């Protein structure tokens, strides 16, 4: 059963964590094969399910240790129709994979959640195309229709919200938001940016957020940035600009490499956890409304632990 669908606790301004780079951790640290980088494919066998459970527990334990909230993001970034087709899933098998991913998180939530550590379950939605390259952008209506299939499944589960991770273009973000609204699901949009702080389409982050808000009557509960290093976007986040108040979360890459460089890399660049944590703290100094912190490519529990300590220290100060 969903617990927070009518009132997301992270909107109250308290610190919330989420996980790190799920796919890169599973591939490079645990040696697991993820066809099409699809973590949900692990749900079909015991070894995969156990690996996912260990991964989430290692991150939830950090939140429990510090008494802060946690957002459990389902392993379903690739569990939409086009990617399911590439992996040989029928529509019902794909729907069941989305449901199973949430059931796993529901069990972990029930195991760890206390009054001091609220656990929010999010149904993770990925882009129709590649997370680094939008390819042919859909229209807003096409995007709403495409993403509705997965979002409507999440609406029947214990998911409290849906999050569009690594959104590369504005029409798809608008369509996702409208599909979530139609399903009665709170929506969060997380954009990815290139080394110049702009979306892969060339749109500025400011323009992207303002256009989605204008088209959906401020439909998203909030926005995030993911799959980019803080040095890629710090310069475009000027405190005092109204649009920046809509940004509430960060899931940065460990590496400062560009998307093109990461695409070609054969080894994991896990950066420096302490340095990344300091960069998060510097951003919170400027934008104190940032409250949701996790990681993306190359990050793992070491990075999340360092980020947590830095952000808690910042709040205490």
Keywords:
single chain; 317 residues; alpha/beta; TIM Barrel; 11 helices; 8 strands; globular
Q: Estimate what percentage of residues fall within beta strands.
A: 5-15%
Report the total helices: 11
Integer count of domains: 1
- The span between the termini is 38 Å
Structural class label: alpha/beta
- Main pleated-sheet profile: 8 strands, parallel, barrel
Helix content: 40-55%
Name of the CATH first level: Alpha Beta
SSE arrangement, N to C: EHHEHHEHEHEHEHEHHEH
Mean pLDDT across all residues, rounded?
A: 94
Radius of gyration: 18 Å
| Number of E-type strands | 8
Q: Name the overall outline.
A: globular
- Strand order, main sheet: write it out: 1-2-3-4-5-6-7-8
CATH architecture label name: Alpha-Beta Barrel
- Do you know the CATH topology? TIM Barrel
Low-confidence stretches: none
> For the record, what is the CATH homologous superfamily label?
Homocysteine-binding-like domain
Written description of the protein model:
The protein has 317 residues and is an alpha/beta fold. Helices cover 43% and strands 13% of the residues. It has 11 helices and 8 strands. It has an 8-stranded parallel β-barrel, surrounded by 5 helices. The longest helix has 22 residues, at 91-112. The mean pLDDT is 94.
């Amino acid at each position: 059963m969903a617990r927070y669908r009518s009132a997301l606790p992270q909107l109250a301004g308290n610190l919330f964590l989420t996980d790190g780079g799920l796919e890169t951790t599973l591939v490079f640290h645990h040696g697991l094969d993820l066809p099409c980088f699809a973590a949900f494919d692990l749900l079909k066998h015991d070894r995969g399910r156990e690996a996912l459970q260990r991964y989430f527990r290692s991150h939830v334990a950090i939140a429990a240790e510090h008494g802060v909230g946690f957002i459990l993001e389902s392993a379903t970034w690739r569990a939409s129709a086009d990617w399911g087709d590439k992996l040989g899933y029928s529509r019902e098998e794909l729907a069941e994979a989305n449901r199973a991913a949430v059931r796993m998180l529901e069990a972990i939530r029930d195991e760890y959640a206390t009054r001091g550590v609220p656990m929010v379950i999010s149904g993770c939605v990925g882009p129709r195309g590649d997370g680094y390259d939008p390819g042919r952008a859909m229209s807003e209506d096409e995007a709403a229709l495409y993403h509705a299939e997965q979002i409507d499944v999440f609406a029947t589960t214990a998911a409290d919200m849906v999050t569009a991770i690594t959104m590369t273009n504005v029409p798809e973000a608008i369509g996702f938001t409208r599909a979530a609204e139609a399903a009665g699901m709170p929506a969060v949009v997380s954009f990815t940016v290139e080394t110049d702080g702009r979306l892969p389409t060339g749109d500025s982050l400011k323009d992207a957020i303002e256009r989605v808000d204008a088209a959906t009557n401020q439909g998203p509960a909030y926005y995030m940035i993911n799959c980019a290093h803080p040095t890629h976007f710090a310069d475009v986040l000027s405190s005092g600009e109204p649009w920046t108040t809509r940004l509430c979360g960060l899931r940065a890459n460990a590496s400062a490499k560009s998307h093109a460089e990461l695409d070609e890399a054969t080894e994991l660049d896990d950066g420096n956890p302490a340095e990344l944590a300091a960069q998060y703290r510097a951003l919170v100094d400027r934008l104190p409304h940032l409250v949701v912190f996790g990681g993306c490519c190359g990050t793992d529990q070491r990075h999340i632990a360092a980020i947590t300590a830095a952000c808690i220290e910042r709040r205490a100060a």
